[in-house]
Amino acid sequence: MDIEDIIKHLKNKVAPNEDEIFLVNTTINKVVNKLNDEIKRRNINAKVEVHGSIAHDTWLPGDRDIDVFILFDPSVGKEKIVTEGLEIAKSAFPKYIERYAEHPFITAHVDGFLVDVVPAAMISDVSKLITAADRTPLHSRYLSSTLNDELKLHARILKLFMKNIGVYGAEIKVEGFSGYLVELLTVFYNGFPNFIKNAADWIPYKTVLPKEYENVFNDPLVVIDPVDPKRNVASAVNLENMSIVIQASRELLKRPSLKFFIPPKPRILKKSLITSLRKRGSHIVVIVANCPKVPPDILWGELKHSMKGIARLMENYEFRVVDSTCWSDENKIIALFYEVKELKLPKIKIVKGPPISMRDSCEQFIASHENVWIRDSTLYAYSQRNVTDLLTLLKNKIFAASLSRHIAEELKRGFEIYIDYQVLNLNGGLLIHAKKFIDKSLWWLKD
Ligand code: CTP
User: Fold this and answer.
1) Angstrom distance (rounded) from CA 411 to CA 403
2) 134 backbone dihedrals φ, ψ, rounded to 5°
3) H/E element holding 445?
4) What's the rounded Cα separation, in Å, for the pair 416 and 350?
5) Of 194, 299, 352, 407, which has the fewest beta carbons less than 10 angstroms from its beta carbon?
6) What DSSP designation does 265 have?
7) Is 91 exposed, middle or buried (0-12, 13-18, 19+ CB in 10 A)?
């Protein structure tokens, strides 16, 4: 099987079927009509347009968030565009959650679909840009002139590839490749096979597309927005996700396989988890608490910050942290995972003092320590550790760590700690994430 065979095989699988297209179109009509009614009722001069992957015809079956824009004349000004746009959206869809990108927008649930309603200015080019969202209609215009049917298929295949290797999405949770970035890369490389061939040779901080924009941005990957050369569309892509794409592309080139597109279901064999735990010698610590009621972007930002804060606390008490990650179902549970070298430390530790040449410092060191000795030309002493057990540290001092507000609030309400084999008592998504964290290996690497 080669990459062309894969494309042939996926052709009818990555595009939505007629029933799904009908369902999406019905919902779009409903959403657009509701917003237009509201605009008319208020006698406002604004236009409703659908953008994003639904408009570009690059959406994946089952993955069909609808992006709707309320576009105002730029002369209205940013403040009024945002307030009036939000009012229209909120009265049209009373059941919504308010979210923030550069400016607020709402997400409404309509007939099982997630609909983002975003206020923006209707502009003809970026020199007249008022809000970051104003670029989106220009993106649609650019893509409608560059994406033909074949490239649309290739964009869908590239999205699926990115999704399965875990790098799809520019949100804080993932820090990966947005839908628009995938579409641009498909256009830039003129299709999926050529994308794979080139991505296999990407170099973080050196790959700039197109080349003329070298030395303008300092990001792992730079892809210039064709509608706004001042913007790097790949600014959200972190080093790890770029590296994953590079290696996965090399693997696909070496051993073309459908597994990247139809991945095996993760199997959790508790026995194999026990073997991995026994083999490693290090320890796994998982802190589990209830999930705060905040939008996903805030939640993931706070989780990542708090995860690092607790790792620093452990390091400050000399427990060596090898690796960490976090997980949430964005509803009920949050979890922070750590791999540490030790759960217990000796009661005493050796403190290195000044060299013998520093007379005053030596006097001070001797005065403040018992049991001082000299090795070569340096003073040493024993000192007592006040915390020798990691579990005690976490139970008693977790709030000394740098924690984000909502995570701290939830931890104050209570948390549980699972250590090593206790991880086997976790279930659902938590257990799957624990397995990934413990095994580490990338499922698509080798057979
Ligand atoms: N957008 C952008 N830069 C991003 C993310 C989004 O410019 N990092 C703009 C693009 O104009 C894009 C639109 O927002 O077309 C909608 O993006 P999004 O909702 O993230 O995803 P889709 O492109 O619709 O992709 P899909 O729903 O298939 O994941």
Assistant:
1) 10
2) -65, -20
3) none
4) 33
5) 352
6) P
7) middle
Task: Output the six-digit token pair for 437.
Answer: 């964290």
Q: Enumerate residues 6+ apart whose C-beta is below 8 A from 158.
A: 182, 185, 186, 192, 195
Residue 323 to residue 304: CA distance in whole angstroms: 13
CA 223 – CA 182 distance, rounded (Å):
10
In degrees and rounded to multiples of 5, residue 160 shows phi and psi of -65, -40
Contact of 9 with 44, CB cutoff 8 Å: no
Cβ contact 155:183 at 8 Å: yes
On whether the CB atoms of residues 246 and 202 are closer than 8 A, the answer is: yes
List all residues whose CB is within 6 A of at least one atom of ligand 1: 51-53, 59, 63, 65, 67, 135-136, 139, 170, 178-180, 233, 236
- Split at pLDDT 50, 70, 90, the class of 127 is very high
What per-residue confidence (pLDDT) applies to 447?
67
Choose which residue among 53, 138, 141 to substitute to test ligand 1 binding: the one with the highest number of ligand atoms within 8 A of its C-beta. 53
Q: 110 - beta bridge partners?
A: 113
The CA-based diameter of the chain, rounded to the nearest angstrom, is 87
For residues 51 and 28, give the distance between their C-alpha atoms in angstroms, rounded to a whole number.
11
What would the pLDDT profile of 71-88 be if each residue is shown by its tens digit? 999 999 999 999 999 999
Compute how many other C-beta atoms are within 10 angstroms of the C-beta atom of residue 100. Answer: 10
pTM equals 0.92
**C-beta atoms surrounding 275 within 10 Å:** 11
Q: Dihedral sign, CA of 91, 93, 97, 101?
A: negative
Is pLDDT of 402 > 90?
yes
Mean pLDDT computed over 89-118: 92
Ligand 1 atom with the shortest distance to the CA of 65: 27
Task: Give the ranges where 281-358 is alpha helix by DSSP (H).
Answer: 296-316
For residue 28, what are its two tokens? 């779009």
User: What burial class does residue 234 get, using C-beta atoms within 10 Å of its C-beta: 0-12 exposed, 13-18 middle, 19+ buried?
Assistant: buried
Cβ proximity of 418 and 426 under 8 Å: yes
Which ligand 1 atom sits nearest the alpha carbon of residue 168? 29
